[in-house]
Every structure is written in C-alpha cells, then in structure tokens.
Amino acid sequence: MEFRQTSDWDGSCGNYQIIRVWTVTDIGGNEIAHTQVVTVEDNAAPSFIGTLPGDETVAAGHIPDAPVIEAIDDCYSGQHIYMEMEPIDPSNASLILEGSLGDVSVVWTLEGVDVTQYKFRDVYTDNSLPTFSNGSFFTPSETGLDGAGFNAISGEATLRITFDQPVDNPILHINNIDISRWDFNPTTDHISLVSGNDQFDIVNGVVVDVDPATSGGLDSGLGSVMVHGTFSEILIDISLVDVTTDGIFLQMSIADEPIVQFNESSVPGLCPGDETITRTWTATDGCGWSTTHTQIITVEGIDPGPSIDQIDVSEDPVELGNAISVVGFYSDTCDIDDHQATWLWGDGNSSVGVVDQANNWVDGSYTYDSAGVYQVTLILSDIDGNSDTLTAATYVVIYDPEGGFVTGGGWIQSPPGAYVPDTTVTGKANFGFVSKYKNGASVPTGNTQFKFNAASFKFKSTSYEWLVISGSKAKYKGDGKVNNQGNYGFMLTGIDGDLNGSGGGVDKFRIKIWDKDQNDLVIYDNKMGSDDTGYDTQELGGGSITIHGSNGNGNGNNNSIAQIIDVERPGVSRDQIKVYPNPSHGRINVSLEDTWLNQASTLVVHDINGKLIHQIRNIRSIDVVLDIENEGVYFITISNRDERVTKKCVVVK
Q1: pTM value?
Q2: How is domain 307-398 classified at the CATH fold level?
Q3: Which fold is adopted by the domain 577-651?
Q4: Residue 8 near residue 149 (C-beta atoms within 8 A)
Q5: SS3 for 420?
Q6: Where are the alpha helices (DSSP H) in 434-579?
Q7: pLDDT digits (tens, 9 = 90+) for 85-133
Q8: Are the CB atoms for 44 and 14 separated by under 8 Å?
Q9: 473-482 and 457-470 as β-strands: parallel, antiparallel, unpaired?
Q10: Where in the chain is the domain with CATH 2.60.40.10?
Q11: Nearest 10 degrees: Cα torsion 400, 401, 402, 406
C-alpha cells in the first residue's frame, strides 16, 4: 500500500485542502485507491494584541493620544515558511555558516520553481524560525502543518538568510559548495558577494560556476544574486537552480496581515470644552472577518455657571401696601435643571425666588413696609456652586400718597466736578422746589428749578414721575429742560434736618440731571458717583428744605413755618416777621412787628428766577395779604434803611 498526501493552497485567507490518497497494488499491477479531501477554512475573526484602552473621563486639554493597536489572525502568523525537498543525503542538503556568529534566523523562499515532486516538510513562523550556531548543520524536521504532505510548487528557489547580529568573516556552504568571499557594510547592514573566488564569479548580477567539476553537481547557470536589507536586518538572497535530482528548494509565503482601521468622532457637550469622543479600531483579515473595539472618552470642560441677563422691574411707582412683581432672566449652557434663586429687596429682607427651569427665568413678589426707593438684587446658583448676582437697573419706587409733601429753596456751593461739561466751574447754585401728590393721584405734581449762574446752566422741571417721603428724607424723579431746551431727566433728594432724628437740624440737598437723548449722559450732579437709591447729600449754604405731614386728604397742612433768612442783619429777630400758611394755596399772610412801621419799609416778592411778583412801599399795616397765582417757590423780603429780612414761601395749587 502506498500513501500520498498533497495540499492545495490558493494563497488567500489561509483556506486550503489536504488530499490524502491510499493506493493498494497487487502483484498483477491491479490497484485500488481511496481519496480523502480535508478542507480547511478560516472562519474566525482576528483578535487584538495587548491591553486595549478602556473608557475614561478626562479634563479638557488632557485628551490622551490614540494608541496604535495591532491584531493577529488564525490565517496569519507572520511569516509562514515552507520547505520542499526530496529525501536526500544530509551532506547535499545542508547549510553551513562558519565564522564568529551569534544565532542566525533563516527565512526560506521559493519563487516559481517547478518542483512538484518535492515533499512539504515543515512550516515555521516568525516566533519559531530555525536557528543554528557556528559550523552546525540545519536539517528540516519531519513535523509539518497538521501532517500536510505533498505540495506542488514551481518557480525559482531563493534562499534568504537573516543574521541576528553582525557576522565576522563568514563562510557560506551550499551543498558543500563554499562561497567564502563576502563584504559587510555595517552602516547599511548589507552583505554582498565578491567576484574572484575559486568557485564562483559574478557576471551581470549572476553567479557563474567557473569550475563545474568542483561545484558539487551544480551547473554554470547558478542564478542571480540579490543582496539587500529587509526588516532592518542583514539579508542575503541567493537564487539557485538545481539541475540534479538532489537539492534544496525552499519557500516563504506571507499571508495577508489583518488590517486595523482607526476612526474617531466627537460630539460637543453643553459646557465649553465638553465633548464625547468615540474611538473605534476595526481589524479585518483577508477573508473579510473583522472585530471591533470601541473606547468612549468623556471630556469635561469648564462650567462657567449661570449668567443673569436682566431683571425686569416695573418702572411705574407702586403705592405703599401693594405688592411688586419682578422677573429675572438667565442663561446656563451647562446646567438646565438645578438652580436656586434668592431675591434681595433692598430693605434688608430677602425671599426665595421661584425658578422656571424650562424657560430660564425667576419670579418674585414682595410688599414693602415703608415708602422709599429700592434696588432689587437677584442671586442665582447652580448645583455645582457656581453663582451669578445682578442688581436691577430700574429702581423700585414705593410711594405713600398720604405721606405728605416736600418743599425747599435756597442755595448750595456747587463743588468741582459737579458740572460735567466743565468740571472746573464752581460757585453758588440756587434751587427752589415743591413736590406733592394731589388728592387721588398716582403721579406727583409741582415745580423744580435749579440755576447755576457760573455755568449759565438753568434747569426747570416739566413733569414728575414719583415722589417718596420716608421720615425726614424725600426723593423724587421727573423730566425737564436745560436752558429751555432738550429732554432731560432729574432726581432730587432732600433731607429736612429740623425733623426728629434727621441729623441735627442741617438741611441737605442733591440734584442729578442727565440728558435722555444722549443715553442718559449725566450733565450735573453735586454728589457725583453716589448711589441713586441712597441719601448722600450736600449741606445747604442757605435756605431750607421742609417735609410736610399729611392731614389725610392729600393736600397737607403746615407743621412748620419756613424760617429762612437769606440776608439778615445783626440784631434782627426772626420772630419780627411771620409768613403763613407755608406752604400756601396762593394766599399768603405776612405779619410784622410794630417796629417795622416806625420808619418807611418796603415789601417785595420774587420768584425763584428773581422775577418781581409784588411790591408794597411804605407799609402801613402789620398784617399784609398777598395773592399769588402760580405754584412755585417765592422769596418775601421786607427792608428799610436799617433792616432787611427775607422769608421763603411755597405755593401749591
């Protein structure tokens, strides 16, 4: 019985067939055969080598580089080495290297030699390349790829020798034929054959057997010689053609290595710098089988926290006792669901804001206990502790229509910087005003005038928006004109120093005037930079400010008679002249002491602008009645040759 085994490999995927034939022949030459075909197929996906990167969370700016991942596959084990040979005498099938060698790896390659009669004996991979030492013989083992038997190969045989380290003066024996002359270039790791030895010569790149009698059966057509450096090692490629029945035929075949493709994508997150990076490695073998590994990298950016964009507050004054409603609008690109808010109402009290997480706003409402001008502040924080604070640009004005009214007249010393067009101008500035709520009205009425002669600056009110009186303090806001032109806003603050607890009998005054047509550009402020909701004011140089209480009907009564002496000579008592009621609705009573009748005295009335309104010469009565038609601040002066006294009176209608 004869057994024959062959293999058929198409060069792809590692798929091949093993064909086994058992043949029995009798003495008469009759035979019977049994054939077995074993088909080996690759149906396994490749696998990755080493530790694969896992999912991780990193800070912005610390994204790791993507590693290079390699893969292996059952149909690819690196360099497959096939040896084909007929059983021959070991001395005729040997490879000997002599010299100072280390371990030497041998890679066998056969290219296109028609040697169908040679047997397939062994397969080696990169990890199991045969090695041999100085002077030793290399003999292929009898083990093979799953016992594979015969393999049909054709082409030209090429021997590739890979040195693990430089070789000192080696001698190469092929089938007992010495090739003893080599050149080694340590810079390029190349070894080349040199012509002129006893056995061989190189003609046009072909090694020619000079003396066939000593060539061990090799004919003169020895084949081409190729010398190069592959895999960054020392390589020698020698092509052989064996015309005898004995010889060495070798083959190296490299199957398709798995291809690893890398892909990376990124999806931005809510916060600046936030993103989710997806990295995918896909290894595909020559048969189309693939395996995938995915890594998710979560990048955490910087959370800037919420930002309050604006606060909406009603610009209309709110009557004391009524609640105000406010709403703050905010944005937060990182946190959309977890916010807490607090409203600060400007009077020392606070309350929790109602946050609408879906629409990004905060509601609030509050009822003040007293009239005043307040600024509302919103504090908003997120779950991470980030917060923002914003104070409303619009003042909350709480007024009490039953809280009385305020009058004033006199002058201040205008300080440097108060008049913005020329901050160096200083000097005396006169004022006169009255502001009150009429019966049932929500907007105050009155008249305000301010004159700064050094700057040729004259302001006169045209309307009021609101009035707030709180104890000894008064504040109101309105519109007017400068030098009878333009569109200006103003806010006047006054303190009546004569009221209890107000500060020792010193009246104080502030007026701020701005150009509404120039983005509220401030033109004049005698307390420049002070908080508009506060009561930082300047002492009067002369005159007075009076806050009048309410009698319940909104018209007010006279709780204090204005006692302003603009110019009073020594020795003149203020009690010698009394002006009442003050304020008045138009009729003013002036009472004099008898001493004013002892000599010719004159009574004159001027308005805030210095215009003469009334004049009485040679007063004959101690009681004088004056009728004044228009609202405003008026100055009543009584004088004679020795004395002069001026009183202020306010007329309200």
Answers
A1: 0.45
A2: Immunoglobulin-like (2.60.40)
A3: Immunoglobulin-like (2.60.40)
A4: no
A5: helix
A6: none
A7: 333 232 332 333 333 333 333 333 333 333 332 222 232 333 333 332 2
A8: no
A9: antiparallel
A10: 307-398
A11: 90
